[in-house]
Write a structure and sequence with these properties.
The protein is an alpha/beta fold. It has 3 domains: about 60 residues, Arc Repressor Mutant, subunit A, CATH 1.10.10.10; about 120 residues, Aspartate Aminotransferase, domain 1 (Alpha-Beta Complex); about 240 residues, Aspartate Aminotransferase, domain 2, CATH 3.40.640.10. Helix content is about 40%, strand content about 10%. The strands form 5 sheets. A 7-stranded mixed beta sheet has the order 4-12-11-10-9-5-6, with helices on both faces. Strands 13-16-15 form a 3-stranded antiparallel beta sheet, covered by helices on one side. Helix 11 links the parallel strand 9 and strand 10. Helix 6 crosses helix 13. It comes from Comamonas suwonensis. In the C-terminal section; belongs to the class-I pyridoxal-phosphate-dependent aminotransferase family. GO terms for molecular function: DNA binding; DNA-binding transcription factor activity; pyridoxal phosphate binding; transaminase activity.
Amino acid sequence: MQGKNLPLWLPQLTAQGGPRFLQIADALQAAVTDGSLNPGDRLPPQRRLAEQLNVDLTTITRAYDEARRRHLLEGRGARGTYVSAPKVELTSILDLSMNTPPPPDGVDFDDMLKQGLSQVLMRTDAELLMTYHLGGGSNSDRKAAAQWLEPMFGVLDSEQVVVCPGAQAAIAALILALTQLGDVILAEPTSYPGLRVAATQLGRRIITVEADKHGMLPEMLSQACRQHKPALLYLNPTLQNPTAITIPQRRRKELASIAKRCNVRIIEDDPYWLLADAPPPPIATFAPEQVAYISTLSKCLTPGLRVAFVLIRDLHERERFLTALRSFALMTAPLTAALTTQWILDGSAARLMEGIRKEARLRHWMARDILAGRYTGTGDGLHVWLELPGYWNSLQLARAADREGIAITPAEAFATDHGSSSGSVNAIRISLGSMKDRGRLQAGLQRLSHLLARLPETFSTAVV
């Protein structure tokens, strides 16, 4: 039970309100926003507030640290902790549009980068890092890749794994290797835009297959296979971009079975598997010879690595893939590949990823609380798919948000086939990791929530 004489700005903590340190930090921010707390006001000592709230001191310390991250508080040594003066905001755009991993709390990325590069330079001849390499990765790189994929598949033969300069390059090379000009690729109506870009540039046709809240419909896949004789099926089955749907295990088995029966190769683009809470086994476990599986580090570590791992069991398909990849991307940058390998083997990558998972969960808590009944996320991953009220359409909202200094991504950006019915989806994707500072993220979400709650400027009611 909470004690007496609590500060007026602090509401009752609830079991349903998420982590308590975030509830306290949110209350602080709300009090500063509505004027209940003003710059220069002194905050209660941490130990006293912990006693009043009947929580441990660590909870209060984390709450105050979080408030400092949001530039709400400043410490003045022995004099205590005070509400800070507002800072001038030099960056006007609140970016909710880019799906990047959030910076984890308690991880010094600069130090991690310096130590990783230092280890690489100590153990590797600098000349080897600055010259040409055969595509596909060195033996060490492939072994590190196989280790990275162990949570999905268990122990793997590293010879079956190819190291690539990013997932987009891998998708394009797979299309080149496994299809011919004019071939059909099947995909869900709303999906990763990079697929459409690659397929269009390479002269392949995308046909959409209807999906529901559990992903692509097996009966519609069977029908599409009979009708269109596709060469490839593209799936992003875990925390799908943009809908955040995770295809359940039973349906994964059904889709794999249909693809095997119809002799259709599958590209399983699975960047978020390691960020998901208890995800089902990859589709590749149900049809090993049928699936090329892609895991990128850009979504679970950092985009700057530009490294992806592709598991292809069939030797001849792997060789065709490498040949296609070399036609436009001779190799992964050796220094980047070496740093990736170093981080995986020394455990830095796993520690960084776990920090990102925790940070992502906290940001989902924040989004759930601010967006209230509109939030339909699962609490993990990097983004939220938000269906809009009928008085807004996604393009209209994106333009209005831009005028408010918020960047969001409308559903139209994810329409796999612009000639299909996918454009009728009225939703936006909100990315939770692109802003380093949680306070700015909260400000962006609050501004977006206020925008959603009001009618568009062009809205008018009929007069009868």
